[in-house]
Amino acid sequence: MIRLLRLFCLAVLLVVVSASPTAAHDVRAGADLRIAQTIAGAELTLVIKATTRVPGPLRVEVIGFPSAPALDLRLRSTADGRVTHGTAAPGRPAQFRVEETGPHELTVGAGGETAVIPFRVLVDRGSGWEFLIYGGLFVAGLLLVGGLLTGAFNRRGRPAVVVTAVAAAGISVAALIVVLEPWLPARPPDGAEPRPTGSALGRPYVQRVVTTVPARPAAGEEFTTRVELFDGSTGRPVDDLAVHHEAMAHLVVTSQDGRYFRHVHPLRTAPGRLEVRLRADRPGRYLTYVELERTDSGGQLLTGSFTVAGPERPTASPGPGIQDAAAGTVTVTPAVPRAGRPATVEVAANGTPRPWLGMAGHLIVRAEDGEFLGHVHEMGTPGSRLRFTFGFPVPGRYFAWAQYATDRGITTVPFTVEVPR
Amino acid sequence: MIRTKGMKGLGGLVLAGLLAVVVVAFVVARTSGGDPVTTAGTRYAVTVTADRNTIDVRLDRGEADTVTVAAVMPAMGHAMPEATARKAAPGHFVAEGDLFSMGGGWELSVRLTGPPGEETLTFTTLVAD
Fold first, then answer.
1. What is the percent of chain B with per-residue pLDDT over 70, rounded to a whole number?
2. Does A132 share its domain with A90?
3. Which of A260-274, A285-299, B23-37 is predicted least confidently?
4. Residue B69 · residue B55 · CB < 8 Å
5. A159 at the B interface (CB within 8 A)?
6. A117 and A92, same structural domain?
7. Residue A214 forms contact with B (CB below 8 Å)
8. Residues of B (50-109) whose Cβ lies below 8 Å from A
9. What residue range is the signal peptide (chain A) (predicted)?
10. A190-217: per-residue pLDDT in tens?
11. Which fold has domain B33-127?
């Protein structure tokens, strides 16, 4: 008996351990899908609101940092091909209707740019174990009534014992499932991507090609930065990006000298292709860093570079709110950080920070030679001071940019840190 | 009497255990089967059923002349050669052979050409061992 119980426990444990995580671009009850996009020169977050029933409504909201243009939206079900259109702007959500769970594509257009965001609409079907709970209780209830009748008409004890015992077994089954339910595998929701149970996690690394259109952009002119992603094993386009810190990819572009900095969220224009429009005011070499995550895998950082030609031409729009840090804005403790030891960076925010990319603040640190890029988040300090903990890995000079969002948009605070030998 | 009840209670536990194992087996069997997958592109819509040696492509929309399938297992970094499906009936194509090197989650790219144009539909399917 004990051995059987042990076997059962082992079976439950194996099932629990091998339960696979959920896929990435999912909209389901209690889980909005938030995706940051840099489109038509604006930094915005698209929110595909959680849905509880299908067929049913699906709402798409836009949050601008600080503002966003009206977006032309097109929702297509990749299961049945149904297409619906809508427009959304900050404060004016788009209302769609979904007829089926499963894969969908949201095409977002503004200012001549277009992004296609694949996602899945899921509806939970319940755990599937309820039938055992209700079945057990039903059998017990039925037999208790039967037991009463048996007791009334039959004076001999044996049938009553059997009935009571089977009723007890039914209650035991129900009780066991009630107790074990949190650990029992849940059925995949309707519309989920088919995935094998108990498969190993992790996918091959991504190879990237970073190009610009035109190939040699001129200073002051708008150009497109294109990142093409290829599977490191098969060479196929990588189109299984998970939403990582509320974006399919974070692209950080800095000039070699650290005076230019952009943290943008490129648009998926084709499978495995991400694009964003930029403008650089000075000629020279620019370094690109793409932070992303494949489904079932960890985060990856892909690097690249491009060159901007021509004479220096100051741009009319210097980008999302870059300002020189005023004295006293940034405090590093210890004042002379030691390599490999955590340092605290405090930034006095101008205004009340509101969440951006799921966090109150972001600190991006680049080694002067460009060989290292770190990205750490604010730790949830109340008030308008942002506090980061960061360990500068080796001695040297670092360019750092603290970023936060307020009602006025995204503020970037640049500063440099010297880490002595 | 009490002893009998206790034994029956334990029996109930065992029964619950066995039932749970049966249900788990049922759930696992359900999730690892090769269910048909329906995908709609802009030109074509297909319903595909795949097992180790056969890929069955039925056109729900669009008339295709040729259908080729390419399978990739992203988790393992496996890629199989592109296979051309033969036309079994109008709107029904079948690819046969050693199409998958192992069971599991495979990404299938179905490339269709015909009067509506060329289109590749990509989706994930489960292939049983």
1. 74
2. no
3. B23-37
4. yes
5. no
6. yes
7. no
8. 61, 72, 74-75, 77-79, 103-105
9. 1-24
10. 888 887 776 667 888 998 999 999 999 9
11. Immunoglobulin-like (2.60.40)
